[in-house]
Amino acid sequence: MTTATTSPAGTEKAPPALRKRSPLAALGGQNLSLIGALVVVLGLFGALNENYLSLANLQVIAEAATITGLLAVVQTVVIICGGLDISVGSQVGVASVVSAMVFTSTGSSALAGMLAAVGVGILVGVANGVAIVYGRVNPTIATLAGLAAYKGLAQLLSDGRAQGYVLNDDAFVFLGRGKIAGLPVMVWILVAVAVAVHVMLKYTDIGRNLYAIGGNDTAARLAGIDINKYLVAVYALIGVVAAVAGILLTARTGSGQPVSGSEGLELKAITAAALGGCALKGGKGGVGGTLLAVALLGALENGLTVQGINTFWQNVAQGTLLVAAVVIQQRRNGERAVGLPH
């Protein structure tokens, strides 16, 4: 006969799954590194220019980072499920032009312009998804083609020039320049999209299935997950959010922009997702890290501008950060160098 033994009072230990993690541990090493880098950037440029940390300039940083943030959040989703979308910047350009042109052609109907932009966003997003899933085209190649095609489409529709004028409309003015509780409306839109995507990824079966697809698509298929449906839906989601970003670009600049304001956004979005901890092979990542990376990139870009440093150096910095993020990922995963022994 066995007897139960009990530990002395006060010595019982909770199972590991039930132990509370400290706030720092909950943030994770990746996010802590990003926070530290952000503090350094803010401190450095704040010391160089007393106006850098002013409320007005911080709002400028937030507004400028909003469109990049929207694209980075959905880029996070597609990378998690093992894909990539290089065409997001061109999608923004198409949506911006369409929103302004439809607004003008319908007698200044902001709703018609915005709905048309979202409709076009869905179409180009689904086109990317169908090419990848049913055409069996590599996501990088398919969306690289989309980058060129959608850029050309935006230029054809607009004849290569800014189209329309929307700053005589209250809805566009509110989106581009309005504030709620002291924060720009654009920032609130980014927050709403980020929260919705975070909840989807972390607390729904859809999110769990996306991580499963990116982690091991064969196992996900054997588990009964319709991978084709999920991938097309994810690229359609990117199209919708890119359309929202295009509408905000139109509202911010006052007209439809085929290229200006949207060119290079794909690099920023991918860099932010990679810096935020997304594994480019899929199956890992989150919205929190991506947003911190967006803030870091926005603060760095604004700081270089405030200091009067040539804007070409911003591209150099972004490219360097992207390579650095991938190198760190490879080292953490124990990947061997190409052509070299372990």
**Percent in helix:** 55-70%
Q: What is the arithmetic mean of pLDDT?
A: 87
Distance between the termini: 55 Å
* Apparent shape: globular
Give me the secondary-structure category.
mainly alpha
How many beta-strand runs? 2
How many helices? The count is 14
Question: Strand-and-helix sequence, N→C?
Answer: HHHHHHHEEHHHHHHH
Regions with little confidence, pLDDT below 50 for 5+ residues = 1-12
State which percent range the strand residues make up: under 5%
* Rg over C-alpha atoms, rounded to the nearest angstrom: 22 Å
For the biggest β-sheet, the strand order reads 1-2
| Biggest sheet overview | 2 strands, antiparallel
Describe the structure.
- The protein is mainly alpha-helical.
- The protein has 14 helices and two strands.
- Strands 1-2 form a two-stranded antiparallel ribbon.
- β1 and β2 form a beta hairpin.
- α3 packs across α12, α4 packs across α11 and α5 packs antiparallel against α6.
- The radius of gyration is 22 Å and the shape is globular.
- The relative contact order is 0.17.
- The N terminus is likely disordered.
Topology:
Layout: H1 23-27, H2 29-48, H3 55-80, H4 88-105, H5 110-133, H6 139-158, H7 170-177, E1 179-180, E2 183-184, H8 185-203, H9 205-215, H10 217-222, H11 227-253, H12 265-275, H13 287-306, H14 312-332
Antiparallel strand pairs: 1-2
Helix pairs in contact: 2-13, 3-8, 3-11, 3-12, 3-13, 4-5, 4-6, 4-11, 5-6, 5-11, 7-11, 8-9, 12-13, 12-14
Would you kindly provide a brief summary of this structure?
The protein has 342 residues and is mostly helical. The chain has helices at 23-27, 29-48, 55-80, 88-105, 110-133, 139-158, 170-177, 185-203, 205-215, 217-222, 227-253, 265-275, 287-306, 312-332, and strands at 179-180, 183-184. Helices cover 69% and strands 1% of the residues.
